[in-house]
Amino acid sequence: MDIVIIGAGMGGLTAALALQQSGHRVQVHDRVGELRPIGAALSVWSNGAKILHRLGLGHAIEQASGDMRAMRYLTAAGRVLTDFSLTPLYHAVGQPACPIARAELQRQLLEAVGPECVHLGDECVDFEADPTGVTVRFAAGHERRAELLIIADGTHSRLRNRVAGRTIERHYCGYVNWNVRVPASEDLAPLQHWDQYVGDHQRVSLMPMGSGAREDGRPEFYCFFDVPLAGENLTDSGDYRTELRHHFAGWAEPVQRLIERLDPELMARIPIHDIDPLPSLVGERVALLGDAAHAMAPDLGQGGCQAMEDGWVLARALEAHGGDLAGALASYDHQRVERVGDIILRARKRAAMSHGHDPDVTAQWYRELAAEDGHHIMAGMQKTIEGGPLG
User: Fold this and answer.
1) What are the tens digits of pLDDT across the range 147-159?
2) Per-residue pLDDT reduced to its tens digit, 211-258
3) Separation CA 153–CA 106 (nearest Å)
4) CA 168, CA 157: separation in Å to the nearest integer?
5) CA 200 – CA 284 distance, rounded (Å)
6) Which fold has domain 2-170+274-386?
């Protein structure tokens, strides 16, 4: 089958690779002239890593990703609330997490798909389906004919409304996220721990993510800072270090070191948005995939993993239904709508809880963390992971 994918992010490239391996002819188009991954890294949890293994990239991804063996929460002052090994989770689900630089994961996916199949600087502006195929139109004036169109152009999707038949509004989740990679160092956090500082409805995270994005092979931390800000305060000042010094004044010494050590030129500042769950992810000869289908808050670490699941499920649905494209799309829709809708809402609820939408709820969460031994947290992670297509 001739398939066109709009969007060369994690979801689009994963789908392209899965579909190529099923024998389909795939062309990927993206409006950007150069692939510059948004965000420093991706927490590829076990459900996403399992799919990468099935696609033949698992070993390479594990070699380039972080060795994240434990997790702990600390107060803003640096007092440990809970500290536990992730080994029981990994044993239960049969696969460790693979936190990795977005640039490295995207590079490996692009190499596997084949750069000759990816067309950059080629913006899709419209499409039209008919009984025999779909015509995809581009800003430069040319067209491409395909049997199936996959729209994976991200949270700001320009084509999502055409599939939904209405305007899909993005929903501000109430906080801004600054994220960056920094060289890993024991004076910031233990090298195999995922540390999260919480307090004042804010959060600082340091996650080990390997050395895949560095030529010198030095391991890095994926770091982010969350601050709840009202809508009128979302303007990007560009002075990230000054902003963070202000928001995290008086926090623990490792947080202060991190703020002084990070490179603001490498940092992204992102007001976090999601969308409401969609009742359907498909139309005639078209499927939504990734953030275009289910943009979600990053609070469960599942955005990239769900995009990977989309690509895998769609490829398997086409395989199972042979030449019945409508049946394959219906199967994809049936398998994905409820799962991604549930994760959107759970991530939104978690964002509200951890960022002080109701201060009493956030205070209760802090108290629960102090009594946590890891079992409750890992049980939630396990449920999310095992709900995926590969269990």
Assistant:
1) 999 999 999 998 9
2) 866 678 889 999 999 999 987 667 777 899 999 999 999 999 999 999
3) 15
4) 10
5) 48
6) FAD/NAD(P)-binding domain (3.50.50)
